[in-house]
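Re: beginner question about structure tokens

> Can someone show what the tokenized structure looks like for a real chain? I only ever see the sequence side.

Sure, here's an example I had lying around. Input first:
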Amino acid sequence: MVIAELTREIKAAIQNSDAPELEADYIIMEAADMTREEYIISKRAPLDGRIIEKARAMAARRAAGEPLAYILGYAEFMGLRFKVDPSTLIPRQDTETLVERAAELIGSADARVLDIGCGSGCVGISIAHFCRGAEVTLLDVSADALRTAEENAEKNGVCAKFARCDILSEMPEGEYDMIVSNPPYIETDAISGLQTEIKDYEPKIALDGGKDGLMFYRRIAQIGDKLLRSGGMLVLEIGCRQADSVAEIMSDYKEIRCKNDLCGNNRVLSGIKK
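And the corresponding structure tokens:
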């Protein structure tokens, strides 16, 4: 069997995907340990049987609903590669808007940044990568997620600090110029209605924002009042219909601004400590 034939087979097997042809490409490249360039020029090349079986096994997992990122073991974000596993939320393009807004506000300043609920570390590590003057501390309640984030920092050549903290019951240490977060913001009762690949595979602790989806925003705004320096900034990813509610929670902050994602949806709110 040549690559082109296996690509067609896997594409047909993963029709539950929104992009079956693209995902088939990624599965075969991973199974064969090929770069995209090697893959493109090798479409008529025969494949070793072990590679075929590995690709088919990966495709079967995808057809069952498992997210491609968990099958591959990584996700691309802000042009960087991040290891992901079931202890971490999968980085999404929408969240790049959060990093972009944070980077706009930091500029070239030597800012101290706190990333609350870091998961894979994609937000804090990307900020540290693009804002070389920033000193970034990443927090998460999950020890497994923190280990993954530390590995991602090392792989991406970024120096950062890491700490385990349950922000709902504990107060982080330090004083910061910016707090950034992509917190859980799905309403508890809405989780069961999400796509299979989200509700059955991604960590619920990274999705569940409480009864109204706003539990973490209330706590982070409260934490920000204590940890941010005067003039410090709070930068939060939000659900596309949460802008007004989160802005009200941030009423003690000034210059509240909303930034839309590439689809035009409300995605990030920022404010300055009075």
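Each token stands for a local structural state, so reading them left to right follows the chain. The first strand starts at residue 74 and ends at 77.
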